[in-house]
């Protein structure tokens, strides 16, 4: 069965997203994740560590721009117009830690599978 155009688009989007990412998931083994951080250093992390906001931020050298763009966390903000009416807006206030951690774990898993399939 060949992939649909929607599946191809999703796959391409995922590949483009990974290319633009400042970190590089390298693989996993023995319950550990291997990641090249934004500085180019290889890091080995436990599953509980990729769930930690401070550790995730350290992988990105403290810059959460990519994380906010790809895993936005929204909050409703209320503002008053000059005419006195109130409007509600949805604004990005942070990155969604759970989604970011899931992406890192899945990307490491996929990197490990690609290396295994490639005979490395």
Characteristics:
3-stranded antiparallel β-sheet, two-stranded antiparallel ribbon, alpha+beta, 120 residues, elongated
Describe the structure in your own words:
The protein has 120 residues and is α+β, with helices and mostly antiparallel strands. It is 45% helix and 28% strand. The chain has five helices and five strands. The protein has a three-stranded antiparallel β-sheet. A hairpin with a 5-residue loop joins strand 2 (32-36) and strand 3. The radius of gyration is 18 Å and the shape is elongated. The chain starts with a helix and ends with a helix. 14% of the residues are buried. The model has no long low-confidence stretch (mean pLDDT 87).
Kindly summarize this structure in a few lines.
The chain has 120 residues and is an alpha+beta fold.
């Amino acid at each position: 069965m060949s992939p649909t155009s929607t599946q191809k688009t999703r796959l391409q989007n995922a590949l483009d997203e990974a290319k633009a990412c400042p970190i590089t998931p390298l693989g996993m083994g023995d319950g550990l994740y291997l990641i090249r951080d934004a500085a180019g250093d290889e890091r080995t992390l436990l599953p509980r560590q990729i769930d930690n906001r401070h550790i995730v931020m350290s992988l990105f050298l403290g810059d959460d721009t990519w994380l906010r763009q790809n895993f936005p966390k929204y909050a409703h903000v209320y503002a008053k117009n000059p005419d006195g009416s109130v409007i509600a807006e949805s604004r990005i206030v942070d990155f969604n830690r759970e989604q970011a951690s899931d992406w890192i774990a899945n990307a490491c898993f996929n990197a490990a599978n690609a290396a295994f399939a490639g005979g490395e």
